[in-house]
Amino acid sequence: MRVRVDFQQNGSNPVAEVDRDFVRFQNQQPTASGPSLSGGSTTRTSQPNLSVTVDDPEFASAQGDDVTVEWIIDGSTVHEQQISSAGVVSYNASGLTDGSHSWSVELNDSYGATSTSSTWSFTVDHYEPVVNNSTLTPADQTNLTTQSVNLSAEVSDRDFAIDGDSLTVEFIVDGSVVGQDTLSSNGTAKTEYEATSGSFNWSVQVTDQYGSGVDTVSTSQLVTSPSTVTIRNVSSGAVITDTADVEARLFSGEMIFTKNVTNGQIDLTGIPPGEGYILQLRVDGYVLRTVALRSVYDQSTAYLLPENASSVYNEFQLNDNTNEFGTSETILYIERPIEDNGSLEWRTVTGDYFGSDGVFKTTLERDQRYRLIIENTDGDRRELGSYIASTDTSATLSVGEIVWRSPEGETFQWDAYIDGESDPNVLKFAYSDPESQTASLNLTVFERGNRSNVLFETNQAGSITSFQRTEPLSQNESETQWVVNFTVTRNEADTTVQKPISGVAGVSLPVDQRWLTLGGYLLLIGIGALFPSTMARTGAAISVAVATGLTWLGIVPIPIEVIGLAGAIALLGVVAEFNGGY
């Protein structure tokens, strides 16, 4: 449109003439078409891309146009943008929950025209997490061997690669949640569960942060904890089905039950399977037996000795010089090798607390080899070695009576010797680490010059403060020369010692080696000071003799070469003095 104004002043009455011309057009509304997402389609992300084609006839006219696109999701305006040409307009939504959503656009052009699109719909539906049932551990029909059980399952979710996700994995035992784990990527969820006796069913249920997966439940797994102890004949291995009077009590002294058993099975349902207990068993035709079991996982069989078997009566008295094994707090386990599934395994056949008098009394099968182990209430154990029940006797089990030899530069101590005074002769080995820095001890005793002839070997692990082993010797073994070889891992460093075993034991003095050594040296100095200068040669000879005796007894660690040299010098001095020399 054009407007022209001509103005002319003429006299007292000015005249204005207006001349105009214009072009008039009809403004049209912008339009929206080709929506995406629409028609109830499904997206797997909470940040879907929405798009629509917007057009306006004025875009192509001489005057042109600007259109404002207003995005409306679930009834709320979430975004605005302006365009000046036709084309596809898009918007990335965010934070949408799983479920159905609606959306539309409102278009406003610069000439005041407004239009609203149709309403379209779509659904947000995240992927459900997936449990790999073949990875469930423990698997179905598993028989547990420990009370602490690691429940685990592999879980995956395709959302991790799209929107990211957080999975909550609940572990369910017999309908109750016993633990949970959280995953932010594909992996293994796990929790620790303390099993009770008997069987239980377990499964996992997984939910994600989008509320999906509430029905993602694994298959149920039936797992069994041992809950029975079988009574067997120690000689034949047969189950004893005769009536058995059973008294059971926990290590704490708490009575569990007293009852009769007629099928050879002692039911311990309801008792924590990882807890130690003591059984007293009385069956006609069998020796009255008290059996200490660390747990039903450790051993699920009680062995009874027939009364008609050749047997001996033994009393074991505890002599503790370490103050670590009080008689009322220490259990003696007497083990015997018993065939189990084709192999011989050490199994406890009897045991109990020493009690206030420090004596454990029992009946053992004659000429059988047993292994003796003591353990206090703190869990400290000592393997005292093998024992052959050959006669009615009373034996003293000494802990801590060893004369130690300490390798130079090390703080652990050890000793090994053959005790020819005992009947039968025994080989004794002892190891001590007062600082408890030893993580493992691997010990082998073999024939000198014939390493394939191994007397015994043992591997100990854990924080080792002390270890003792006593091995009975036959007549032939007593006449064999043995070598001890052991490797200790201490402070993350390995040390190996290999020495021939002496046939003479050191004097058993329960005194710290450092004090013994200091006292021995002071004794030598004192003896030397007793002799005046006129008898110095005689004093030297006597000092050498005393030093030899102290070294032989294991009190002072003087090398034999040094003693020999000192003895030769002292002897020459005495001879020279006798001959009237200097």
The gist of it:
By secondary structure, the chain is mainly beta.
Key descriptive features of the protein:
Immunoglobulin-like, mainly beta, 582 residues, six-stranded mixed beta sheet, 51% strand, 4 helices, elongated
What does this structure look like?
The protein is mainly beta and 582 residues long. Among the domains are: 31-124, Sandwich (Immunoglobulin-like); 130-225, Immunoglobulins (Immunoglobulin-like, Sandwich); 402-508, Sandwich (Immunoglobulin-like); 513-578. Helix content is 10%, strand content 51%. The chain is built from four helices and 41 strands. Strands 4, 6, 7, 9, 10 and 11 form a six-stranded mixed beta sheet that branches. Strands 13, 15, 16, 18, 19 and 20 form a six-stranded mixed beta sheet that branches. A hairpin with a 6-residue loop joins strand 1 (2-8) and strand 2. Helix 2 (513-529) runs antiparallel to helix 3. The radius of gyration is 46 Å and the shape is elongated. The N and C termini lie far apart (149 Å). The model is unreliable at 402-409 and 504-509 (pLDDT under 50).
